[in-house]
Automatic annotation (TrEMBL):
Keywords: Cell membrane, Membrane, Transmembrane, Transmembrane helix
GO annotations of cellular component type: plasma membrane
PANTHER family: SODIUM-DEPENDENT PHOSPHATE TRANSPORT PROTEIN 2B, SOLUTE CARRIER FAMILY 34 SODIUM PHOSPHATE , MEMBER 2-RELATED
Any one GO MF annotation of this record: sodium:phosphate symporter activity
Transmembrane feature ranges: 46-72, 84-103, 109-126, 138-157, 177-204, 211-232, 244-266, 286-306
Transcription is among the record's keywords: no
InterPro entries: Na/Pi_transpt, NaPi_cotrn-rel/YqeW-like
Highest taxon listed in the record's lineage: Bacteria
The name this protein goes by in its record: Na/Pi-cotransporter
Localization of this protein: Cell membrane
NCBIfam families: Na_Pi_symport (NF037997), NaPi_cotrn_rel (TIGR00704)
Organism of provenance: Orenia metallireducens
Length: 312
């Protein structure tokens, strides 16, 4: 029984991550060089930088991927730290779209997504336009993602009555800092904040986590996802490393800023929807909007701080 449950967990998570990779890779390749062009040309001021970060990340469904692209552009002296920082703030908002989609019951329309993916592949063979193939790959990636979530849902149903699981969830729910730490560690391992938050949404749909625990795990995931950018900056220029630090410190600052008002934050989020899954997705979005809005007026000071820390 335990082996079967572990097998379902591994299979579900593997399919979810495979689907995420398919979405990211498919839509990124479908865009060609347009994303890098947008990042280089639409970042003249802080607002356009943020909007560009949102737009690019919504397309490729990965803030980590956007940040890696930014670091490569900074390393090539095509973007300044100030421009890159604006895009990072936008990327954090854009990546929440994935969780918003997961929170809806799109698995009921899985056949539509699969059919569209196949249609794009068929058009590729007729038109020989590789962009159609990449769009089809992205859509099929979404379908694999939801199949993985469905497997996780079925696995969770089998363990939701286990005493040890209930006690663990209750223990974590009463300790926000521990929930945040677990969110950091798990996300650093799987390198996807959307994956962890997606799993939390699945747990919520099964009634196995409350809003408080879900939010602390999501907060931790925002810090854990920075590991990808940190790795990408190894061996890069000084400014590229500062960009990676900007991503890390920005998310850490946001978590620290929300901790004193965590109870109020949870209460406000609970009013955004009657469904727990939707509340969790909304918390992910609202947190990143909140973080951007409080840092935006002080971005000059923040960037100076980043330069100081990264050179120390």
């Amino acid at each position: 029984m335990v082996i079967i449950l572990i097998g379902k967990l591994v299979l579900g998570l593997a399919l979810f991550l495979l689907g995420m990779e398919g979405v990211k890779d498919g839509f990124y390749k479908a865009s060609g060089q347009r994303l890098e062009y947008l990042l280089k040309t639409l970042t003249n001021n802080i607002i356009s930088s943020i909007l560009t970060g949102i737009m690019v990340t919504m397309i490729i469904q990965s803030s980590s991927a956007t940040t890696v692209i930014i670091i490569s552009l900074v390393n090539a002296n095509l973007l300044t730290l100030e421009q890159a920082f604006g895009v990072i703030m936008g990327a954090n908002i854009g990546t929440t779209v994935t969780v918003q989609l997961i929170s809806f019951r799109l698995e009921e329309y899985l056949w539509v997504i699969i059919t569209l993916g196949i249609i794009f592949y068929l058009f590729y063979y007729l038109k020989k336009n590789r962009r159609l193939m990449y769009i089809g790959r992205g859509l099929l990636g979404f379908s694999i993602l939801f199949i993985g979530l469905e497997i996780l849902s079925n696995m969770i149903v089998n363990i939701q009555d286990l005493d040890i699981f209930i006690k663990t969830m209750t223990y974590l729910g009463a300790r926000p800092l521990l929930g945040i730490l677990i969110g950091v560690i798990v996300t650093a391992i799987i390198q996807s904040s959307s994956a962890l938050t997606g799993i939390v949404v699945v747990l919520a749909k099964a009634g196995m986590v409350d809003l408080a625990l879900a939010i602390t795990l999501a907060l931790g995931s925002n810090i854990g996802t920075c590991i990808t950018a940190f790795i990408a900056a190894i061996g890069s220029s000084k400014v590229a490393k500062q960009t990676a630090w900007a991503h890390i410190l920005f998310n850490i600052f946001g978590v620290i800023a929300v901790l004193p008002i965590l109870s109020l934050f949870i209460e406000v989020i609970s009013l955004t929807s009657e469904e727990l899954a939707r509340q969790i997705a909304n918390a992910h979005t609202v947190f990143n909007l909140f973080n951007t809005l409080i840092v935006l007026p002080f971005r000059g000071i923040f960037i100076k701080f980043i330069r100081t820390v990264s050179s120390g």
